[in-house]
Amino acid sequence: MRKIQARLTGGAVPAWLEKHIIHFDPNAFDLEATARRLRQLPIDQRRYVAELVREVCDANNVFDIEEERFLVSVILSLALAPEDNMVLVVPTSVDTGGFS
Prior knowledge:
It contains six helices and no strands. By secondary structure, it is mainly alpha-helical.
């Protein structure tokens, strides 16, 4: 995760971002407000967010159906069209409870 953050920021993770990471409280996180703000981004930036989530999910090089479900949820919340996410979601024949 830190490698991805460093790549995105062009080197070391900035102190302000490190502080946010350390003090992140999942119980205080407003997912609805965050999704609303992300949906306001242009489509290419929303796709980039989904690509970053894909990269984080793949960071450990292990296929995990829960990570796939999470990625599908992100894509749905960003309202990306199927053609925008075909290369992001791993197709599977396993029953995923309605997700593909």
